[in-house]
Amino acid sequence: MPFRMLDYTCALMKQHLAQGHKKIPCIEGLVIYSGGKSPYPAPTEILECFDHPALAKQIMFGSKLGLVDLNQIQERVLAQHDDADILELLLRQGSKGTFVEWLRAHPDVLEKLFARSYKNGGIFYMFIVEREYEPKEILDLIDEIAPDKKEAFMTAAQQLMQEGRLEGRLEGRQEGVQLTRESVVKNMLSDGMEPTRIAKLASLSLEEVEKIAQQASNWPHQDLFPNKA
């Protein structure tokens, strides 16, 4: 019941914000019970619903939001983050809206990107987010610093143009970023990466990763999600 009440409370908070309010309201839940067993036999506190209440209190209800602000972390530190290194570097640079000069100064990024499971998503991301240079200029740069990678970039550019996503990028970067993030997640799923790790790397909730997994017809491991039988 505490979890269900939390779900109801969050729904009311979302409704409140959807009405234009900037802050969430304080909501007190009340359960009226008249069952056959007395006193009430089920948990009455949300922490009682966890296998490890103390840990849940520490990391979920007793601390600040778990936040990784990529803009506050130096590139050399991000470069040490195992398989997530290039993903984080691309996202960090993407906030500036351009990659060309950055890639020129960091040619090793391309070599490392092609060794990652999310390489296609990374290529799409650069094409969609780039604001200062045209796709042809990106391809010219690739031909200059990594000619053996140009074919893959050309294939990605052609696919994006067929989908209308290069032409539509000026309508707003956010939609393109979301589409690319989904592509990255699908690549990670197809490579067998754990959903919880994907959620952490992509800054998504487990529910958002599950939704993307349900759209990926080639990923059969729905049982890895905790709410699946």
Give a brief description.
The protein has twelve helices and no strands.
The counted number of beta strands is 0
Q: Report the end-to-end length measured between terminal Cα atoms.
A: 21 Å
Count of DSSP-assigned helices:
12
What structural class should be given to the helix and strand makeup?
mainly alpha
Broad shape: elongated
One letter per element, helices H and strands E, the order comes to HHHHHHHHHHHH
Structural domains: how many = 2
Give the overall average pLDDT.
79
Largest sheet: none
Overall helicity: 40-55%
The fraction of residues assigned to DSSP E strands is under 5%
Determine Rg (CA atoms, Å).
Answer: 22 Å
Low-confidence stretches: 168-174, 218-225
Explain the overall architecture.
With 229 residues, the protein is mostly helical. Helix content is 54%, strand content 0%. α4 (85-94) runs parallel beside α7 (119-129) and α11 packs across α12 (206-215). The protein is elongated and about 75 Å long. The two termini are 21 Å apart. Mean pLDDT is 79; it is low at 168-174 and 218-225.
